[in-house]
Write a structure and sequence with these properties.
By secondary structure, this protein is of the alpha+beta class. The protein contains 5 helices and 9 strands; from the N terminus they run αααβββαβαβββββ.
Length: 200
């Protein structure tokens, strides 16, 4: 369900930026409801995987509820319990050109960006430091995990530029739930291959 958390993260960032409100939106609604065979929003498989674009299309059409109104659980029975009271909608969503400089500009001027990356066992066992993986792939069809890019910086000890990335595996993973991924390293793991954000 990483795709749902990634999409929710970029939308929450846009709401904070535009309205100065901190909200907690419902990833579970996306997991349950984007699973439906709707010609506009279909294409995802709940906790078994999915894409960000159908989730954005769903939010544009139906809206997204607060998490307090649609709580998260690990149930794999996908029963959509959406109602249209107290929802947030988007005007559209944008796809960032495949370029790390464009992604950096978007993070700096727009806010958190939903991205997909290619991961393997090395990523799963990440603990700390700037993550470098020369074996991960960067083409669109190899991307297998959605995360949220929230910032970027430079590490003096290694000399590496890096992305600050929020994962959806809880605070016990990585650096309190985050990973620093090497930046300006030939689009490592495809981090700039499929960046998206919501427009309110």
């Amino acid at each position: 369900a990483c795709w749902a958390f990634s999409v929710i993260g970029t939308l929450e960032g846009q709401i904070k930026k535009k309205y100065d409100r901190l909200v907690n939106l419902s990833p579970r609604q996306l997991i349950d409801c984007v699973y439906l065979n709707d010609e506009i929003t279909s294409g995802n498989w709940g906790c078994d995987g999915g894409f960000e674009e159908p989730a954005f299309r769903y939010i544009k059409k139906y809206g997204i509820m607060n998490e307090s109104d649609y709580n998260y659980n690990d149930d794999r029975v996908y029963k959509c319990k959406y109602n249209d009271t107290n929802t947030w909608k988007i005007e559209s969503f944008r796809i960032i050109p495949i370029n790390e400089r464009q992604l950096q500009k978007a993070v700096a001027t727009i806010g958190p960006i939903s991205v997909a990356i290619h991961t393997n066992r090395q990523f799963e066992y990440y603990k700390q430091g700037v993550y470098v993986n020369e074996k991960c792939k960067k083409d669109y069809y190899s991307l297998n995990h959605a995360v949220l890019v929230v910032g970027y910086d430079h590490d003096l000890s290694s000399g590496y530029d890096y992305w600050i990335v929020k994962n959806s595996w809880g605070k016990d993973w990585g650096e309190n739930g985050y990973i620093r991924m090497r930046r300006n390293f030939n689009n490592m793991c495809g981090i700039a291959t499929n960046g998206l954000y919501a427009e309110l």
